[in-house]
Amino acid sequence: MLRDKIFDFFAAASRPRLIKSSQAPDLAFLLPRAPRKIDQRAARRFIAGRRVLVTGAGGTIGSELARQIAAFAPAHLTLLDNSEFALYGIDLELREAGFGPILSSALTDVCRVEHLERVFENAAPEIVLHAAAFKHVPIVEENRCAGALTNVLGAKNVFDAAIEHNTETVVFISTDKAVNPTSFMGATKRIAELYAQALDVAQNETRFVTVRFGNVLGSTGSVAPLFTRQIENGGPVTVTHPEIMRYFMTTREAVQLVLQASSLDSGQQSIVTHDGRVFVLDMGEPVKILDFAKRMIEAYGLKPGEDIEINFTGLRPGEKLFEEIFLDTDKLVKTGADGVLLASPAMIDLPLLTPRLEDVIENALDGDQQGLDEAVHHLVPEFSAAGADSARAGNRTNS
Known about the structure:
The protein is α/β, with parallel strands linked by helices. Helices cover about 45% and strands about 15% of the residues. The protein has one domain (about 40-215, about 255-285, about 330-399): Rossmann fold (3-Layer(aba) Sandwich). The strands form four sheets. The protein has a nine-stranded mixed beta sheet, sandwiched between helices. A hairpin with a 5-residue loop joins β14 (about 335) and β15. α2 crosses α10 and α8 runs antiparallel to α12. The longest helix has 21 residues, at about 145-165.
């Protein structure tokens, strides 16, 4: 029996693909709008001559941040990631591009405060862009303690170290899933937002800026690479629900807008605003995932439903049909920068937030998922652990 399974595995792996990878379409052209042309002069002035640290530098957003920042002539750029392979990849790429003299890499887990402290001592960053996070909704839903440690404790460690080492600006990379979160991942990102906002208001030395946006094309674990692999293997393409919709943006455009948002009121002016700012990237109209799958199949010269089947698998735990970038109660303000809006989400003062934040971290460290769920719910009432558990149970029953 085992021998038959092994034979079937290698037989399937050796079958020729229906499509060659070289035939894969340019995903940017599958979006309903063209990427914006963004004036990067303000971002260049924000970065040039400064010491910059990027956490999560080996990830999709972190590595693109590193590329664009390196091109803006920083005094020094420190790349931080806890994945040796991911860190090696972006480090090698930037060194081969000629940025070796200004580059250093730190193989560090943001949850290890002692290790992070040494990174800040050596890097002395004036600007920190915090992109390190666990982001895959179903994985974090099943591993909540680990998710809370990286997304909450890790963010807290980075933010605290930035204040201790007199960093000028901290930019927190957040997500649309932090708005009215139904997933545990979204709830943890919202908690990190709350801490960044509280710190920004509580002190006047380090400026904290949060930037929210949705999905980026081609990011690790997103639908585009999944659909590409499924199409090249002959299908079927799997979509969770026929009505599910998401915001999409190219990685390059998203990072350009992040840097543009970060440069607004960046301390090069005489007055710096400390009001817990949360910027929202205008990602255009949301895209129905089913339509996106069909366009991808057609871009390969194939017919959906004939050459490549599309199967519906059901919503995953914590997953919404539609992601919000902001709540209706948020007042959006134009910033003067095309594609960047300013939201006004609710805040919690630091003295009230701190003990609740410590409850989240303590329960995560103890591996107490029930206590963790309750602590997260106290901080983010929109998140219901019971609702997420019910969705998980339903999916298991239907699978």
